[in-house]
Amino acid sequence: MAPSLSYSPTTPQFFLHHLFLLILATPFLASTAAAALSLPPSLGQPSTIPSWKIQSSTTVGDDAVALSSPGLDTSSWYETKGSKATLVAALLESGVYNDTALFFSDNLAKVDQSAFQVPWFYRAEFGVGSVGGNGTGGGGGNGSTTTRVYQLKTNGISSRADVFVNGELVVGKDVQAGAYTGRSYDITGKVLGNGGGNGTESNVLLIKVYPTDYNRDFALGFVDWNPYPPDNGTGVWRDVQIAQTGAVGIEDVSVKTELSGEVKFGVDVRRWASSGDLEGEVECTILDPQGQAVGKPQAPFKFVGDEGNGQQQKVVVETKISDPQIWWPKQWGAQPLYNATCTVSTSSPSSKEVSDTSSPVRFGIRTVSSSLNAHDDILFTVNNHPFQALGAGYTSDIFLRFSPSKLRAQFQLVLDMGLNTVRLEGKQEHAELYTLADEMGIMLMAGWECCDKWEGWTYNDEGSGLKWTDADYGIANASMRHEAALMQSHPSMLAFLVGSDFWPDDRATDIYVAALRAHDWDVPIVSSASQRGFPVALGNGGMKMEGPYDWVPPIYWTDTRLGAAFGFGSELGAGVGTPEIESLSRFLNDADLQDLWQSPNKGLYHMSTSVSAFYTREIYNEALWARYGAPTSLDDYLQKVQMADYEATRAQFDAFVLRWSDIERPATGLIYWMLNNAWPSLHWNLFDYYLRAAGSYYGVKAAIGRSESVVYDYRARELHLVYRGLVAEGRRSVAVELMDTKGVVLGTIGHGINATATPNSSHKLPLGTQVPDLLEKIQDVAFLRVLLKDGEGTGGKVLSRNVYWLSAREDVLDWDASTWYHTPVTSFANFTALNGMDKAEVDVSGKGGGKVGLENKGSVPAVFLRLGLYSGDNEVRATWSENYVTLWPGESVELDVAVHGDDYEGGEVVAGGAGGLEVRVSGKNVDAKRVKLDSVDAPEL
Ligand SMILES: *[C@@H]1O[C@H](CO)[C@@H](O)[C@H](O)[C@H]1NC(C)=O
Ligand SMILES: *[C@@H]1O[C@H](CO)[C@@H](O)[C@H](O)[C@H]1NC(C)=O
Ligand SMILES: *[C@@H]1O[C@H](CO)[C@@H](O)[C@H](O)[C@H]1NC(C)=O
Ligand SMILES: *[C@@H]1O[C@H](CO)[C@@H](O)[C@H](O)[C@H]1NC(C)=O
Ligand SMILES: *[C@@H]1O[C@H](CO)[C@@H](O)[C@H](O)[C@H]1NC(C)=O
Predict the structure, then answer these.
(1) I need a labelling partner for 886 at 20 to 30 A (CA). Which of 91, 237, 291, 575 fits?
(2) Is 291 in the pocket of ligand 4 (CB under 6 A)?
(3) Sign of CA dihedral 839, 841, 846, 852
(4) Measuring CA to CA, which residue among 723, 662, 714 is closest to residue 418?
């Protein structure tokens, strides 16, 4: 029974006050018994606690021994739906909070945090089943049939916890500390039903979680990205598991591969029980991507003497796979995945018995390396090919909710835009993320986060986090070991960044590197995402963090200073990412919406936090007003915003790809800041919280969404042919035309420029001064259309089409006045002529099969046509082959639309209506129109 809370956006105070009382005082939830875990009879493959009962110590007191005893009445406790949830996430699931309401306007600021400043309890029951032996557990047995050991495995609890089983303390908060600390604890002596009983005894697992403080604890923080969740993410945010093994268990399996097919498994085995010599073997059964067995290599192990339990050793199991199927990033090829299941057996002269079996480990055969070039810029290679990382920074959900379907939808958007990399800054999520990246061919740059406890190194006085103590180095070690084990086997791993804004001190560096190496880490370890300094042991990381994070004009990106397109930019962008009205109205009230254009300098709750340089849209709006003209309405503001956003991301990505093969100083990679937002935000994303794509998304897609294109350099006024694939080579032609706002052709270049596409490269088209000469003809504003066609001459298929709107007046930057987050502009480009353009009439036709035709019937360009797909008045989640399209008079294009037919709500992707579809089209100088579509297929992305 969920509480029925009436909520009206106009009375948030009432709602939140009410809600607070409910949390503290009213045990109102009916209890159906939580789905208890019952272990399978076989050894190996840990079982996950499926759900939890949750309650505050304010409500149930602090007697952990009593609370972890069997038979407690938990009918007044909240219950999670799944195996993990932070406190706030659990209360959302229980209906105490409602995120539609919490995210609306500034409601989140009104939640009282005091409910989360006390410990809370997570409680679950489990049975270990009948094992039919005598269950000597930690005692002797020498690997005999009677040995069965139970382990409790944590994978990270935010941020400190005491763990009890059946009234006994298993581990305290000094050891189970850090949101990424995962360990195995022997609970054999504490469980009931361990052989001696009848197998149905209920065991109680109780986890007491302590409040998280981002500056004191190793947690998952958000710096200035968004408001902090009221509980700072406290709770069991990752799975907790119970495992049962014989005397020897498998802790982890690492995989190292060579393109020749050599595969080396590093199987960490741990001795849990028995004394004296103990030997046996490890065997890994390998299946190829088609499911055929391709090997069963083995290797022996031996624990010598009476060295006590807890001993660990790495057993290396090797083989060579013939005709290996190579794993590639998506843009270069397929993602064949092998898997291996490893078994450890103990043997005595008379018998051999299985002691533990790993979960299947999926791996791909690929290699990754990095080097510093002559400019100290990092350059990655994948399968020996130079790999230009084009990515964006990922964040978890504000309440650390994790949905595989949502992540899949996000990764589809990543690929659809043409990105090949995702950076996880201290948001390591769950195993499913890595599995999905492996399957979809997305490279991952993982690493620890900046600016809080994680960077509280002895020398660093700039972060807000408390300095590390001796104990903290231990937490860092445990965290790194757990994450290395989680990630190592995944072919999608590109690098691990042990520091972000700052580099770890030497002691931390040694710990991190040793932990990664202990798990056979075989892709680059990067000292930090910036070049403020580096530890000697790792050397320069070769990444730059020089901004910008706020608006800069397109011409910024092909300069040679700061964040411009050279080297590897680890987090940078023009700060854009404004959602369209359909999304904005889900989280802003009318006053907030009007503020966007009527109070351009106001601090906004859905920007960065109030202590941040990014609390207002001042820098962005100043440029928007100057370049596109003062907005006349909210609609007009949003139309201009999408043009500015598109222009910003396209120019950034164009610049980095056109400098990929630069002789002076290549652009080796960029991570756009950011990919997504933890909650509904007004900036720093390529798609919004509801997974809808707008200007920033289609700007990126225009730059890199096709494997080849011709892109424009605003500064040098040059065109470059970019080819991102590995195979095709061939002749191309390029057609360039400049048209003014009245539809007059100001000039063309040649009758087809011939060029050769060469794999994985960019090169300047040899046009001399033709482009600058052409652009001299611009009076106020004109459109530069660049077509890339297959084959020589002019008749070939159009491979890419790009239209740039250019001003006679360039943006002028004041580089000397740059800050860490932007470079100011002293004179702005002027696009206001767009506002006085004649109307263009556009024909829209549904062509079936997911195709929509557009034709400009007018005599002037039809500018920045936005297409949306609607079911009734609801916008359907869809992606277009291109969007925000500008068409020449008489020109027609055919666009593909992929319908996702789902929406994003409450932390999950949910089914959305996709019946009775219509396309709505509107543009800068094109009146809105609607056209019904008879059939729209949903092509695979
Ligand atoms: C949450 O609140 C919104 C608006 O206030 C309401 O429409 C929605 O039904 C609520 N969701 C739940 C699960 O109660
Ligand atoms: C199993 O043992 C428990 C106590 O150890 C007892 O309460 C329960 O009735 C027994 N169940 C069966 C099916 O024998
Ligand atoms: C969350 O962490 C911040 C420090 O980053 C701290 O000021 C705040 O009190 C914490 N909130 C809770 C509920 O502990
Ligand atoms: C292992 O590979 C086989 C064959 O491809 C497949 O059926 C199975 O699902 C894989 N297991 C995992 C966990 O990926
Ligand atoms: C491009 O190639 C075509 C066909 O080979 C040829 O007719 C044309 O003159 C070439 N164009 C230029 C500008 O060289």
Answers:
(1) 575
(2) yes
(3) negative
(4) 723
* DSSP bridge partners of 880: 897
Q: How does DSSP assign 560-629, residue by residue?
A: SSTTSSSEEEEEE-----PPPHHHHHHH--HHHHHHHHH-TT-B-TTSS-TTSTTSB-HHHHHHHHHHH-
Q: How far is the CA of 291 from the centre of ligand 4 (A)?
A: 7
C-beta of 308 in contact with ligand 4 (< 6 A): no
Instruction: Taking residues 551-556, report their average pLDDT.
Output: 98
Computed over every residue of the chain, the mean pLDDT equals 91
Is residue 720 within 8 Å of residue 658, measured between CB atoms? yes
Q: Where are the alpha helices (DSSP H) in 334-403?
A: none
753 Cα to the center of ligand 5, angstroms: 7
Atom of ligand 3 nearest to the CA of 214: 5
The token pair at 889 is: 């008079």
Give the number of the atom of ligand 1 that is nearest the alpha carbon of residue 2.
14
C-alpha–C-alpha distance, residues 86 and 157, integer Å: 9
For residues 418 and 181, the answer to whether their CB atoms sit within 8 Å is no
Which range, 465-469, 748-752, 898-902, is most confident? 465-469
Q: Answer whether 116 contacts ligand 3 (Cβ < 6 A).
A: yes
Which residues share a beta bridge with 253? 267
CB-based burial label for 922 (10 Å; 0-12, 13-18, 19+) = middle
- Give the 3-state secondary structure of residue 137: coil
Q: Active-site residue numbers?
A: 501, 571
Site of tokens 């043409």: 418
CA-to-CA dists, residue 94 to 399, 619, 633, 870, angstroms: 14, 41, 41, 32
Q: Is ligand 3 within 6 A of the CB of residue 213?
A: yes
- The residues that bridge with 871 in the sheet, in sequence order, are 874, 917
**Residues 226 and 177 sit within 8 Å (Cβ to Cβ):** no
Chain segment 287-323, per-residue pLDDT in tens = 999 999 999 999 999 998 866 678 899 999 999 999 9
Ligand 3: which of 232, 234, 452 to mutate, judged by most atoms within 8 Å of the beta carbon? 232
